[in-house]
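Fig. S4 source data, part A: sequence.
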Amino acid sequence: MKAAYIAETGSPDVIRYGDLPDPQPGASQVLVKVGAVAVNPIDTYLRGGIIPMPLEFPYIVGCDLAGTVESVGSDVTRFRPGDRVWGSNQGLFGRPGTFAELAAVDEQWLYATPHEQKDEQAAAGALTGITAHLGLFLHAGLKKGEIVFVNGGTGGVGSAVVQFAKAAGARVVATAGTDEKRTRCESLGADLVLDYHSSTLDDEIRAFAEPNGGVDIWWETQREPTFDRTIGLMKQRGRIVLMAGRDARPEFPVGPFYVNDLKLVGFAMFNASPDEQRQCAEDINRWASSGEWVPVIGQTLPLSEAASAHRLQEDNTLQKQGTLTGKIVLTT
């Protein structure tokens, strides 16, 4: 099979595209003919050696996939050949990556693809969708009618937070940096979309949330969070969700935080159990079928251009070039 893989960690240039042996599925595994995969920041961190994790070379990169079942192991009960499936959480903890024509995936990490979704959409919304769902519901306990604020409402995770929060009956405030992105954010359902460059940004957030007593859930996507301003905008018993900023060491106003009964939640999607992720997938599939969840795709490339895709991802994640809205998807 053709695959995008590395023989050592390093820059995007270490990614090779070539032939590797076809995987042989184990008893609990499903052999998937991959139709599409998505690029995530964690893929670039693993490839670059930024996150220390044991990798067996040649290492196939990638966490997300969507495709069609080719065959199943003897213990598999949920899928059969011909089923369309999607999944994530691959390429971690000894599991092989997904950037290949074939992938052997344990059935506990796979979910049926709704008829309404193409493989490209299912792959684009895999890691980002599960991440958004875990943060909003498992960790932050979102309730109907609450106010959710998300920095960067058109990003991979941010766009999922906007759509899932609206599907659950919340009111959403989101930021975006350009007119085009703000228009996109409005189309996703955000109730208020603001320019994060605005000098009156906090006043505008406060004016919207003041009748509610403040923001209930603050979803922070910035790599350098500023807790002094965030905590001042929160409602009592509000929750702040962190999913970025590995190296950040911000100042933290302890007093205003604890006297307002606030909670600070940090989480990583790949720590969630298979059962927890399957619960996310059930809602995600339901919202995809009803049209309430449409993953945002920024660029689609062939799998052979995986190195270019990683370079584009890094330009926007690490260099903050702002040239990408939504996910990078690769097709086989």
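Fig. S4 source data, part B ends here. The chain has a mean pLDDT of 95.
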